Amino acid sequence: MISAIVDYEFLQNAFASGLIIGLVAPALGLFIVVRRLALIADALSHVALAGIAGSLFLSQNVTAFAALNPLYLGIGSSVAGSLLIDRLRELYKSYEELAIPIIMSGGIALGAIFISLAQGFSTDLVGYLFGSVSAVGREDLYTILAVAVITILFIVLTYKELFSMSFDPKYSRAQGISSRALNIGFMVVTALVVAGSMRIVGILLVSSLMTIPVAAAMQIAKGFRQAMLYAAVFGELSVLGGLFAAFYLDLAPGGTIVVISITILLLVLGGKKLAASRSAARNEEVETGEL
Amino acid sequence: MAEPLIELEDVSYRYGDTSALEQIFLTVEKGEFWAVIGPNGSGKSTLIKLILGLIRPLSGQIRLFGQDSSDFREKEKIGYVSQKSNAFNRAFPATVREVVRSGLVKKTGLFRRYPADANEKVDSALAAVGMEDFTERSIGDLSGGQQQRVFIARALISDPELLVLDEPTVGIDRKHMQSFYNMLGRLNREKGIAIVLVTHDVDTVSELVTHVACVNRSIHFHGPHEEYSRQEDRIRSEWYGHAVRRVHHGRKAADA
Ligand SMILES: Nc1ncnc2c1ncn2[C@@H]1O[C@H](COP(=O)(O)OP(=O)(O)O)[C@@H](O)[C@H]1O
Ligand SMILES: [Mg+2]
Fold this sequence. Notes:
heterodimer; A: mainly alpha; B: four-stranded antiparallel beta sheet; 8 helices; 32% helix
């Protein structure tokens, strides 16, 4: 494997991108999960689908778009979608969740239209839907790297405020933290990570990379920082393991990555249960004095 | 020397067509301990939200620490414990330390890291509420009363001069309630922190507070605790009776 990575540029691209995404998606995902916004990540990925499909369609029909990397329109539409969701949530203040199905179905609808208009990009499209080991180019890698730098800077610079806002929005407003500006920033960064991750895990499975490692981490972490650390570790294990399996078994990496992350979640749940029953048994021994 | 921390002058507020507060006058001075009482829906939380600047008055003026509330930026001078602060998601992964430290967010400023002495501040804020043994515990594993103490510590960590609490004992059993209120009394006496406490437990706090304000859309009484006790029967009968009249309208506590 190592020698294959050294030999093939496409593998370097895929594994480097995977390493970046495996860290960034679960780290941001922790905020998404505790703020109960997991569905938003899902909606944004479907908006990204519209951008990707639109770009693939245009590249067939308009020469100016022929050489354009679909990732850019994917990112653009996902960011636009995130701003739209924010507007809709303001508009329907007491029905905030209404924004999600509207944007999600809008994304799928546009995607469906572009897909049926165009003929013969099914292999490209499958790569975007379920991820790909072989299709990640240098340009994709650099774009993903840029997304990661922006995301990490955002998290590091606003960590205090993000934590406070996630834990207790009312209190953080009473402290005078501008939740609106922070929220918009957060949504845009989420859109960037969603679009950046889809090259590796695929549009349909992006949100699971942001949520499943977090779900496992929250089972065992005591604090927020610890949860972020565990989530990143589980994310990396899933992505690297998933890419490895996908390469050797010739499978879509989105599928293998998510299956591994669910396996990790199950192991964590099982391990936790085992530890609990052991300590319960130990307590019983102490109580009955049979030590 | 009179040093008003909160001044409300002829303040009114409405939600859409629902009038929540009308012509409120209230002055809270340094070191005072106010109990704000009133039936459900009487506007107590609205009063608190106005004081905190979470909502703006429809008419009238609010001054905090002598400044107009819309210009007031030193939010760290006011510690806040909300009505439902322990209604957060119990599975939220955060240690007690992380929660208490977040009380320094405003004081630290955007884009900056917590100061180097943040950990010591967390320890002493937790010691002030008797929770120093729980620093590294997960917030979700604590009882309701313990969580509420942690939220007080979060409010205390920025060294506030004023503590505002909206029904902080909801969900705490009676046994722990008394010790919780006693702790507030200690903070008030020993650290000189002014307190505005919205509560239903008038009898439990009567020994501790210096002033009482009775709210029911308008303020029906406000003044020193002794005077409230003297007039309690009358206030209560007027208050819960059907013919609700306003008394002591616009009378300042400081005059008493
Ligand atoms: N966000 C809101 N929108 C509309 N009406 C509200 C809102 N918050 C409170 N009210 C109304 O304002 C009145 C005062 O409410 P509140 O200040 O919460 O009372 P209290 O805290 O004393 O129970 C009530 O009639 C309540 O129904
Ligand atoms: Mg209330």
